[in-house]
Amino acid sequence: MLELDSYDQFLEDDGLPYPTVGSWAIEKHRKVAYYASIFSESMRNKWNCRVYIDLFAGSGAAKLKGAGQKIKGSPLHVLGIQSSFDKYVFCEENPNLFNALKQRIRQSYPNANATVLNLNCNRAVEEIISALPKFGPGNTGIGFCFVDPFSASNLEFGTIRRLSANLYVDFAVLIPSHMDIHRNECNYTKPECRTIDNLLGETEWRAAWAAGSAPCRDFGLFVADRFGKQMQSCDYIYEGPEHFEKIRMGEDSGLNLYYICFFSRHPRGQQFWKETRARTKRQLTLGI
Questions:
Q1: Closest CA to 66 of 21, 28, 30, 24
Q2: 222 pLDDT exceeds 90?
Q3: What's the pTM?
Q4: HSE (CB half, 13 Å, CA atoms) of 79?
Q5: Which one, of 53, 9, 34, lies nearest residue 169 by Cα?
Q6: What are phi and psi of 208, to 5 degrees?
């Protein structure tokens, strides 16, 4: 099982690029790594191949805003869990971050069966699928996919739909509900703007929002809820927005940033996620 204290271990500067993140990213990475740990261990003797996919992988490490300490990103956390996955696929569009991620994987996990793609995940769905083992009778596969877009414009629902049609896969999806969607409502609701259309893979949301028929008048939460319903249409369990994991700017802050939305087709995945939420609440004290 994952040791949560490992999150308190800062990295030495290796001279490679470090994108800057807020301290709240630690909680996000903690949840993803914890779920990956119990998922991979539990599926170890039930499936022939366990796959981890990261659609916005970054450089594998990051620098904390203000504090300057270096921390692991989601790729290095998941590569470091005890019950490792059989296959890893990382996608990163930025060439500098892509090269840094490849070097960090090579240095720290040289034996990992990892494919790193320098592509936009929405344009590279077929390449991602091609990087996976060929599954069928006698070679079963199951996956966990982390989706961490910086803004709503970075993700298209068609990418999720295509992956889920080719792999039995759980998703943890970050919806930038307040750091992007809520505060850009005026732009995103313009008829000519297709950002939310692409994110949700549908246009009916416009009529629902304009009519005021949505159960919540917070635009960020409304979009996250519509995303959940779209996942439900792909045969994923969706129990409502009250099950989203809300990430705030600080432990005691009322300023919401985004939701981590989890989706599985099996009740066991939901149970694992509930355990993850319960076990990963502790915030890191930075002294800043």
A1: 21
A2: yes
A3: 0.92
A4: 26
A5: 53
A6: -65, -40
